[in-house]
Amino acid sequence: MPTRRRQQFIYGQFAWMVATAFLLVVLDSLSYELFFVLSLIGILIVTELTAPANVTPAWRRRLRWLIALGLVGFGVIVVRRILEILPPEVLPW
């Protein structure tokens, strides 16, 4: 059975992602990239809000890998956006 903190984390992240998707639909701005970035921000916030004071459970240590992959994905999105903005004569290829 999941611990109370784990349930809080799962419910908090789920609520954040549903609210994000709803808000993006209402604002007519829904895109995969924007949803991904806002969900990553949500996972960082929910992780900090549900952090235990004394002992770090194993599931929290594995959560670091998910956050690291999210940050790599964020880096890819940023690089793609920068390459879209730069004029073609600046790029070496």
The total beta strand count reads 0
Amount of helix: over 70%
Shape: flat
Q: Would you tell me the structural class of the helices and strands?
A: mainly alpha
Estimated share of beta-strand residues: under 5%
**Unreliable runs, pLDDT <50, ≥5 residues?**
none
Distance between the termini: 54 Å
Assembly classification: single chain
Number of helices: 3
Number of domains: 1
- Secondary-structure element order, N to C: HHH
Largest β sheet strand count, sense and barrel closure:
none
Summed over residues and divided by their number, the pLDDT gives a mean of 90
Give the C-alpha Rg.
17 Å
Write structural notes for this entry.
- It is a single chain.
- With 93 residues, the chain is mainly α.
- It has one domain (4-85).
- Helices cover 74% and strands 0% of the residues.
- It contains 3 helices and no strands.
- The longest helix is centred in the last third of the chain and has 28 residues, at 58-85.
- 2% of the residues are buried.
- The mean pLDDT is 90.
Topology:
Blueprint: H1 4-26, H2 32-49, H3 58-85
Helix pairs in contact: 1-2, 2-3
Keywords: Membrane, Transmembrane, Transmembrane helix
InterPro entries: DUF8044
Write a concise synopsis of the structure shown:
This protein is mostly helical. Helix content is 74%, strand content 0%. It is flat and about 55 Å long.
Features:
93 residues; mainly alpha; DUF8044
